[in-house]
Amino acid sequence: MDDLFARVWDNLFARVSGPMKFRLILQPAMAIIFATRAAIKDARENKPPYFWAMFTNPAARRTKLQSGWKDVGMVFVMAIIIDAIYQLIVIKFVYPGETLIVAFILAIIPYLLIRGPLNRILRRGKNSST
After folding, report:
1. Contacts of 16 (CB under 8 A, 6+ apart)
2. pLDDT tens digits, residue range 68-94?
3. What does R_g of the chain's alpha carbons equal in angstroms?
């Protein structure tokens, strides 16, 4: 089991300096762009912050998840495809678990970190200007 974690850890950090490292900037940037668009729309419609609303409003959870997936789903799928290509080139084998970890880190995390807080900032600015 320790060997598994060591391999995963080493493989994840090898991606930072390996080929195709441009995706480590490009994919989070795309997720941030989609999160920004969604946050602006949420603020305009006076909706609560995204991640917070998923936990505090069970009735809206499904709608929020669908909205988020619609925005970031393609970035997530592209992250999976590009990481699988990277693994085939460098490791000569595809580890699906590592691919999902990388896709989650590059697409989902930036989206969640931006959409809710930006919505709060925009709503606060909107309320103070009126």
Report:
1. 24
2. 898 889 989 999 999 999 899 988 999
3. 17
| Alpha helical stretches, state H, 20-108 | 23-44, 50-56, 58-90, 96-103
Residue with token string 């200007």: 129
- Minimal CA–CA distance to 23: which of 119, 117, 89? 89
**Whole domain around residue 33: which residue ranges?**
25-129
Any domain includes 19: no
The average pLDDT across 40-44 equals 92
The neighbour count for residue 49, using CB atoms within 10 Å, is 19
Q: Which residues contact 110 (CB under 8 A, 6 or more apart)?
A: 28, 31, 32, 35
In this predicted structure, the answer to whether residue 65 has a pLDDT above a threshold of 60 is: yes
Pairwise CA distance, residues 81 & 59, whole Å: 33
**Entry pTM:** 0.81
Does 10 reside within a domain? no
10-39 pLDDT, tens digit per residue, is 877 778 887 888 888 889 999 999 999 999
